[in-house]
Amino acid sequence: MKKAVLCLLFCILFLSCALFAASAEEQHRSGEFAWSLKEDGTAEITGYSGKEASLALPQTLDSIPVTSVGAGAFQANDVLAELAVPEGYVSLGDFAFQRCENLARVFLPASLTEAGMNPFAGCPVLEMVSIAGSNPNLRIEEGVLFSLDDRRLVWYPMLKETASYTVPGSIRIIGASAFYQCENITEILIPDTNALTAIGRRAFYQCENLRAINLENANISTVGADAFCGCRRLQRLAFPEKITSIAERAFQDCTDLKELILPEAITSIGEMAFRNCAGLTSIRLPEGVTAIGKDTFAGCLALEEIYLPEGLSYIGGGAFQNCESLQALNLPEAVDYIGSSAFDGCIALENIEIPDMCSHIGAYAFARCQSLKSLTVPSYVYAVNPFTFSGCVSLEKIILPEDLEEIGEKAFFCCYALKEIVIPDPVEVIGDYAFSNCLALERVELPEDLETVGPHSFEKCDRLTDLPDLSDLYGE
User: Fold this and answer.
1) pTM for the full model?
2) Taking the CA atoms of the chain, what radius of gyration do you get in angstroms?
3) pLDDT at 7 > cutoff 50
4) Are strands 314-315 and 337-338 parallel, antiparallel or unpaired?
5) Whole-angstrom distance, CA of residue 142 vs CA of residue 132
6) Distance in angstroms (rounded) separating the CA atoms of residues 436 and 400
7) Is 255 a residue whose pLDDT tops 80?
């Protein structure tokens, strides 16, 4: 009985807590403002539907004092041109006024002590942010907004005409989206004596004319996601020796990047980190890197040479897709996984040796490798996945492993130069169109226990004259 009572009390307490939390997060509306009740009993603006060009934020909503503007509350408001935040407000949430395309002037009070991730990111005409002189934490210097408690550069004006900017030596963090789409900036200087330890996500996102930044002088250990994404004129990168990781898409679409120096301390490179760096010609990955993620170097059209560390074991999907200048690649013995489309579209790739310990080669992994002439599939691979070698028009010879069990759909589709192939006895399934359009194919050695063959598996193999009747094995 006591256990039942205790269980009931626990359930009541749990429901009460849940209801309290739900009520605290409940959305309210007062005129043109949406708001929620914070734990301290004050209101936070979460949305605005008005069309005022000049707006002074309310000090109360439904008699409740307002102390903050929530994340994205005024995002993409295309009417607001002038904003006054009254005394009593203490914080602006992440990206609170992001992409307010006509916002030109902002007045902030002395009480405002917290600014989240760049509240004014993507405000293209914002040229003046004024802060009450007695504000203890936020400061404007040369038109740039700083947060003093965490020593963070919060916002750099998109309209600022200065081409070169020196980050103050006391700054620890270049905040998220701080230089978002600042097209006039061409050079970022980090002084030799500096406190910089972090570059936030999208910090220099689409600064299309940024050509140089001396990161080697910084004390950063990581570069945030999308930090330099779209910096198309950036030409050279050298990192500080202590950096250990580069986040996803950090340098995606840096199309003019030609030189990249990665220190040995790096152990992690995020997905798409250097995707579409079309000018990059060579790269050396540090010994601590054990995995190359999805699309990491995809679209690096000029990449001719890459050094892969001995401990590399994982090559993710699309890792080198459309690296059109890559001619040869030595894969380390530790590689046991090659993802889908990993080398798809590497049209100049002539030679590649896959380590015998590799157990997975994904679909499309070598599709459209038009210069590839021969290949040995490792013994631990039990299936040639769909489209794996499709479009390898120069492939003359391929050796399949003795324990292979399946050949997928269009696995060798349009391998024009392939003349003969021995399909191992364990293979029971040959997918549809597997060898279709193999125009030079003259000889195929089929397994005795073959169970299923696609009806078009050898379609347009006009030189293959001694193929037995396989119609009894056609799959549905």
Assistant:
1) 0.88
2) 30
3) no
4) parallel
5) 16
6) 18
7) yes
**Bridge partners (DSSP) listed for residue 338:** 315, 361
- Which domains are assigned to the chain? 43-160 (3.80.10.10)
pLDDT digits (tens, 9 = 90+) for 420-445: 999 999 999 999 999 999 999 999 99
Whether residue 310 contacts residue 285, with contact meaning beta carbons closer than 8 Å, is answered with no
Phi, psi of 47 (to 5 degrees): -170, 160
Q: What is the mean pLDDT of residues 340-352?
A: 97
| Amino acid type, 406 | E
Both structure tokens of 347:
């049209």
Return the HEC string of 275-301.
CCCCCCCEEECCCCCCEECCCCCCCCC
State the residue for tokens 């015998």.
356
Parallel/antiparallel/unpaired status of strands 82-84 and 54-56: parallel
* pLDDT of 90 above 70: yes
CB atoms inside a 10 Å sphere around CB 53: 12
Average pLDDT over residues 95-104: 97
Contact 446, 423 (CB under 8 A): yes
% the chain with pLDDT above 90 = 88
Strands (E), 12-171: 27-30, 33-37, 43-48, 54-56, 60-61, 64-69, 82-84, 91-92, 105-108, 114-115, 128-131, 138-141, 144-147, 152-155, 164-166
Half-sphere exposure of 20 (CA within 13 A, CB side): 8
Determine the distance from the C-alpha atom of residue 270 to the mean position of all C-alpha atoms in its chain, rounded to a whole number. 7
Q: Write out the two tokens for 311.
A: 């401990």
Tokens of 74: 């005024």
